């Protein structure tokens, strides 16, 4: 029976990386994305429906400062989460962190803010969980599958690779891999530029949409 | 000195005109009441003043500043009790008070505020664990945390039992005595009459009358009403023909006579009852109220509007 089966490696990796290094960074990025897109969207919808945001909107606390506070608290959670994941992964699978790991908190901060912005935009556009579900599914699952998270995007058709390259997940994971394990040095600068671009655009969009539609 | 100046304020939602050109002023240290039925445009007007809604047209000045330019300053100096508002459900009252206090430059002592509003024993509870009266005391306390100069109260006693409502009124009267300016919306005419130094009666997005409650009532020329219920339907024309009766109307099961000479009309009504085949009960003689002013000006009662 076994003779009928043939195993073949279909996932290609760069020569300087193992699947564990690849997956560990992917899981950290996935966790950061999930906390931003899913958790933020649903908790902000709750705050909106419970009229907490309306009550805050008649205080001197601006929408931007409220989002900043949300981002900061989520960043602390993301750092704890990352520490646990990397600590556990390193202990179980013997991976070596590079010196560049000192940049990881900054990268995680960028990712936390970008995905929180996605979550706050979804919370501003959707009136309830049911309406938010398709938005979060498209944003979250789309980025996870095509974002170099569980398997390399290099295995995808070229047109999907082109889309994945400009979405925030792939460059974010790329920067994490570079900072944790020193993988992908050549693309690091381009990844940083794309992440900073998303950071700027999503922050502006979230501030405008959240102020106009949810924070009132 | 005017704390609030509102000029020709309008708000439309697509084809619906919710507020149709409202103008009024609120003076320093007074309680100003916006009285009207549900859907009259009171909350929309108030939310435009609080910066929660963008007016379609018109001008709002608070503390002499245009609202659009000075919103952050206005929020710093105003307290707000919304008709419906929520607080972080997992936080205790003490934590919510500390959090909200951190938003303002001017801060009151939380212990002092808690004592004043009898919240001392409740500080360890969450907002969801409070009764209706306790909730309203808490939302008023939180709106006064930063020692504001002006407070907006949107239907603050809705859903409260009479005792809790009375207690809330006592607090508002003591706040006015401390010099606080209060803008209050309500659909309870009794509340507006007892608390307000001046009122604006609002109906269908327009102010139909404004002034001191006593002046508005006296301007009607109606001094009393006689109300009763009847065991059988009564021809309203018969009641109108009684001496001293200016008008008669039926409101569900109650007959309502407007009279300028209550002692004459009452005697005539009792004589009429002897000839009448049914019985009248729940007979009451009442002074005219703001509700009568509303009825006179709009042709319907606050309750009729509410039902419509």
Can you describe this structure in just a few lines?
Chain A has helices at residues 19-49, 52-57, 63-93, 104-125, 129-146, 158-166, 169-181, 185-213. By secondary structure, chain A is an all-alpha fold. In chain B, strands 6-7-8-3-9-10 form a six-stranded mixed sheet, sandwiched between helices. A four-stranded antiparallel sheet of chain B has the order 2-1-4-5, covered by helices on one side. Chain B has a four-stranded antiparallel sheet with strand order 12-13-11-14.
Describe the structure.
The complex is a heterodimer of chains A (216) and B (308). Chain A starts with 18 loop residues before the first helix and ends with a helix. Chain A has 216 residues and is mostly helical. In chain A, helix 4 runs antiparallel to helix 5. Chain A has eight helices and no strands. Chain A is globular. The mean pLDDT of chain A is 89. Chain B is an alpha/beta fold. Chain B has helices at residues 42-49, 71-77, 93-101, 110-116, 132-143, 162-177, 189-195, 213-219, 236-240, 262-275, 290-298, 302-307, and strands spanning 2-13, 16-27, 31-35, 57-62, 65-66, 78-81, 150-154, 181-186, 198-203, 206-211, 224-230, 245-251, 254-259, 280-287. Chain B is globular. The two termini of chain B are 39 Å apart. The A-B interface holds A 47, 50-52, 54-55, 57-62, 216 and B 50-53, 72, 75-76, 78, 80, 82, 84-89, 100, 103-105. Chain B: It is found in: Cell membrane. Chain B: It comes from Candidatus Doudnabacteria bacterium RIFCSPHIGHO2_01_FULL_49_9. Chain B: Residues 4-229 form the ABC transporter domain. Chain B: GO terms for molecular function: ATP binding; ATP hydrolysis activity.
Name of the CATH homologous superfamily of the largest domain in chain B: P-loop containing nucleotide triphosphate hydrolases
Number of helices of chain A: 8
Largest interface: A-B, 13 and 20 residues
Q: Judging from the principal axes of the Cα atoms, what is the shape of chain A? A: globular
Through-space gap between termini of chain A: 65 Å
- Global mean pLDDT of chain A: 89
CA radius of gyration of chain A: 19 Å
N-to-C SSE series of chain B? Answer: EEEHEEHEHHHEHEHEEHEHEEHEHH
Helix/strand structural class of chain A: mainly alpha
**How many structural domains can be distinguished in the coordinates of chain A?**
1
**Helix and strand succession of chain A?**
HHHHHHHH
Poorly predicted spans of chain B: none
| Head-to-tail CA distance between termini of chain B | 39 Å
Structurally, the number of domains of chain B stands at 2
Q: Let me know the number of strands of chain A.
A: 0
**How many DSSP H or I helices of chain B?**
12
The Cα radius of gyration of chain B reads 22 Å
What is the spatial order of strands in the main beta sheet of chain B?
Answer: 6-7-8-3-9-10
Report the sheet-strand fraction of chain A.
Answer: under 5%
CATH topology of the largest domain in chain B: Rossmann fold
CATH class group of the largest domain in chain B: Alpha Beta
Main location (chain B): membrane
Protein name (chain B): ABC transporter domain-containing protein
Family (chain B): Belongs to the ABC transporter superfamily.
GO cellular component, one term (chain B): plasma membrane
């Amino acid at each position: 029976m076994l003779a009928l089966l043939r195993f073949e490696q279909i996932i290609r990796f760069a020569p300087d990386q193992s699947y564990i290094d690849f997956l560990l960074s992917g899981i950290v990025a996935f966790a950061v994305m999930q906390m931003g897109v899913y958790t933020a969207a649903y908790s902000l919808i709750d705050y909106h429906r419970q009229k907490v945001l309306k009550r805050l909107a008649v205080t001197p606390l601006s929408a931007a400062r409220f989002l900043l506070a949300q981002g900061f608290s989520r960043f602390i959670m993301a750092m704890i989460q990352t520490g646990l994941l990397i600590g556990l992964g390193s202990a179980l699978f013997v991976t070596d962190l590079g010196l560049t790991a000192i940049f990881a908190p900054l990268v995680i901060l960028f990712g936390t803010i970008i995905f929180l912005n996605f979550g706050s935009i979804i919370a501003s556009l959707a009136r309830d969980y049911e309406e938010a579900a398709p938005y979060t599914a498209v944003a979250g699952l789309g980025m996870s599958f095509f974002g170099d998270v569980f398997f390399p995007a290099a295995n995808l058709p070229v047109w999907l690779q082109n889309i994945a390259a400009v979405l925030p997940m792939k460059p974010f994971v790329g920067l994490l891999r570079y900072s944790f394990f020193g993988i992908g040095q050549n693309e690091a600068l381009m990844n940083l530029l794309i992440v900073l671009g998303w950071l700027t655009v999503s922050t502006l969009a979230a501030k405008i949409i959240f102020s106009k539609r949810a924070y009132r | 000195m005017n704390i609030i100046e509102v000029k020709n304020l309008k708000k439309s939602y697509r084809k619906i005109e919710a507020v149709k050109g409202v103008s009024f002023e609120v003076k320093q240290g007074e309680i100003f009441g916006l009285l009207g039925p549900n859907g009259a445009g009171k909350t929309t007007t108030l939310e435009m003043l609080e910066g929660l809604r963008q007016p379609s047209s018109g001008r709002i000045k608070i503390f002499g500043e245009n609202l659009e330019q000075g919103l952050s300053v206005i929020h710093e100096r105003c307290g707000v009790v919304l008709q419906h508002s929520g607080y972080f459900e997992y936080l205790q009252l003490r934590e919510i008070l500390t959090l909200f206090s951190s938003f303002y430059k001017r801060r009151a002592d939380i212990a002092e505020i808690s004592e004043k509003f009898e919240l001392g024993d409740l500080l360890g509870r969450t907002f969801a664990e409070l009764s209706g009266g306790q909730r309203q005391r808490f939302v008023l306390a939180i709106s006064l945390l930063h020692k504001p100069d002006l407070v907006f109260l949107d239907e603050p006693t809705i859903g409260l039992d009479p005792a809790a409502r009375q207690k809330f009124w006592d607090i508002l009267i003591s706040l006015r005595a401390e010099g606080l300016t209060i803008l209050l919306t309500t659909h309870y005419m009794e509340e507006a009459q007892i608390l307000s130094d001046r009122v604006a009666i609002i109906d269908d997005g327009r102010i139909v009358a404004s002034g001191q409650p006593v002046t508005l009532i006296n301007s009607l020329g109606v001094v009393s009403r006689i109300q009763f219920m009847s065991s059988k339907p009564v021809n309203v024309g018969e009641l109108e023909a009684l001496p001293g009766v200016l008008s008669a109307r039926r409101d569900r099961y109650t007959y309502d006579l407007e009279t300028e000479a209550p002692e004459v009309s009452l005697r005539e009504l009792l004589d009429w009852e002897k000839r009448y085949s049914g019985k009248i009960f729940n007979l009451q003689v009442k002074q005219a109220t703001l509700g009568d002013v509303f009825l006179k000006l709009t042709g319907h009662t606050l309750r009729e509007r509410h039902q419509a």
